[in-house]
Amino acid sequence: MYLQMGWRNIWRNPRRTIVIMTAVIIGVWAMIFLGALMRGISEQMVRNGITTLTGHIQVHHRGFRKDPVIENSIDKPEVVEAALSKILPQDARWTTRVRVDAIASNARHSGGATLVGIDPEREAEISFIGQAVTEGAYLKTGDTYGIIVGQALADKFETKLGRKLVMMSQDTKGDIASRAFRITGIFRAEMEATEKQFVFVTTGAARKMLKLGNEASEVSILLTDYKESDEVADALRGVLPSESYDVETWRELLPLVTAVLKIYDWFIYLWFLIIFIAMGFGIVNTILMAVFERIREFGLLKALGMKPWWIVKEVLAESFFLLILGMVVGNALGFLSIFALTDTGIDLSALSEGLEFAGMSRVIYPFVLITDIVAANLVVLILGLVVSIYPAVKAARFTPVKAMAHT
Amino acid sequence: MNIVECRDVKKIYRQGKVEVHALRGVNLSIQKGGFIALAGPSGSGKTTLLNIIGGLDYANSGSITLDGNIINEMSQSKLANLRLNNIGFVFQAYNLIPVLSALENVEFVMLLQGVPAAERRKRATTILDDVGLKDAYGRRPAELSGGQQQRVAVARAIVSNPLIVLADEPTANLDSKTGEGLMEMMREMNEKKDVTFIFSTHDRMVMDYARRLVYIRDGLVADEQE
Ligand SMILES: Nc1ncnc2c1ncn2[C@@H]1O[C@H](COP(=O)(O)OP(=O)(O)O)[C@@H](O)[C@H]1O
Ligand SMILES: [Mg+2]
């Protein structure tokens, strides 16, 4: 009967009930929807990081990451390849790259860029570049003069498809190596910085330019499940001696992203708490009002022999219904909003320049983490009931004689 | 055997520096099955006395015994149990829980007592029929007349066969005809079910229904009449 009384009591003042329910609805919606957007941002940061030539695991010659010069190449990629074919799960993908800091120049401009020599077929299965070419064509194995550049770089260099671009770097002997390429494709990336930084040629072309034999700068591995990264990396470390090789997972390769992910976890829970605090005041206020309007009634209940604890339960039942109703609608609206944006996302390209600095994408898509949803609802329900204890105890404290004299 | 025994009961209200001596040493014995009116002008101490007998308030001195139990020494929670199981209350107004129907209001006390649902329902309907509310089971207090509300309150007070029913000016908010009807019904219940009633009033007509009349004046029993 507590539940029945609680339920009927909240409808004695429907206007007030609807106002406070609306507050709960907006609060829960904001927790779920904006929480999902925040998760979407961090999720996409990870994905961007991984597809922008990182992969889940990378193998380098020891020291390459600190000093990415051509001397720090993997001398015998076939050793690594053998290890990979032994250890990697069946459906994992991998590719080798030649990668070197270079200077790009044409008649008008010059500037730094990272020259990446790729195996076009394998690369396409691993990183973004396979799908990123918007003008011209993607590289073909054996192509020795084609180069693919980002849209932003093309704009900066005031160049276009079919034009020449000269790449310059140091070869294995310490001499200047330079080679002219023809732009055969232009790619677009999530982030402008990526478009400006990377230019792609085939491994063959890169090796020829740098006078390399069979060497490679890195091996990048993509697993089907990123959660296996640590396990697989450990297995690889077991067969690739650490004096010669560095095996690292994306968490180590993308330290900034990893740090930001951790911060986001706190952000989201802080966000929940802030919303709850705003909501909590409303809840306490509403229940207090409802209690003070009914001092007489609580006095009557106590006169009839109702124990204080029973009165607390009755008042908590009222707050329980307010919270549950608000939560149901809030969750529904939250999921509707998320659902509405799953395909289109939110386009932030207008703000893109500032956002990119933080490693964010131009378009963000909401991403639902069940633990967030559960946490949001628990925060609202449990803290909601906890703050309602205050008015409930107040109601239970009215003494019958005083309360009955109250008009 | 006396169901209520008051010995030299005193009650002083303090309001800031002012002391109001509401009861100045009341001696009163009430026998089981009685139908007693506490009569007296407004401010004489009737409500105070009923509250103390009913365990709603504490006396400053003296002793109050209810069915052999000294209640002025009981804890709040013991008193709550006593009220729940042994005393029926009828107040002047606002007796009922607004969100519950007449039937639910009567059942409510039994629910707190832990009476099983089927039994509750049976007893509540029977008693509502007895007080003449056969057609009002499902109505909320707001849909009942003042007289009907007081009848529901009486039904609730007697439904669990309490030791005693305390009614503080039960007719004060009713017109005289409705008031008479209520008093007749209470008297009938007193006779039929052997429930002890103590009620307060300053209304002559209501006093006439009493089988014993106790006059209260200035916090003292001034006179008695059988
Ligand atoms: N809570 C209280 N605080 C102070 N004085 C009170 C209080 N309740 C009653 N009184 C005083 O005690 C006296 C008796 O009041 P009461 O028992 O209500 O009389 P009655 O019911 O006969 O009208 C009155 O003078 C009244 O003003
Ligand atoms: Mg009075």
Give your account of this protein's structure.
The complex is a heterodimer of chains A (407) and B (226). Chain A is α+β, with helices and mostly antiparallel strands and 407 residues long. Chain A has helices at residues 2-10, 14-51, 77-87, 120-124, 129-132, 151-156, 192-197, 203-210, 229-239, 250-253, 255-292, 295-303, 308-341, 352-357, 370-397, 400-405, and strands spanning 57-61, 93-105, 110-118, 133-136, 146-150, 164-170, 176-187, 198-202, 218-222, 245-249, 346-347, 363-364. In chain A, the strands form 2 sheets. Chain A has a 6-stranded mixed barrel with strand order 2-3-8-5-7-6. In chain A, strands 11-12 form a two-stranded antiparallel ribbon. In chain A, helix 2 packs antiparallel against helix 11. The radius of gyration of chain A is 31 Å and the shape is elongated. The model of chain A has no long low-confidence stretch (mean pLDDT 91). Chain B has a single domain, classed as 3-Layer(aba) Sandwich (Rossmann fold), CATH 3.40.50.300. Chain B has helices at 46-53, 76-86, 102-113, 117-130, 146-158, 176-193, 204-209, and strands at residues 2-15, 18-31, 35-39, 61-66, 69-70, 87-90, 164-168, 196-201, 212-217, 220-225. The longest helix of chain B has 18 residues, at 176-193. The chains are: A alpha+beta (407), B alpha/beta (226). The A-B interface holds A 1, 5, 8-9, 12, 296-297, 300-307, 310, 400-401, 404 and B 51, 54, 56-57, 77, 80-85, 87, 89, 91, 94-95, 97-100, 104, 108-109, 111-112. Adenosine-5'-diphosphate binds next to strand 1, strand 2 and helix 1 of chain B.
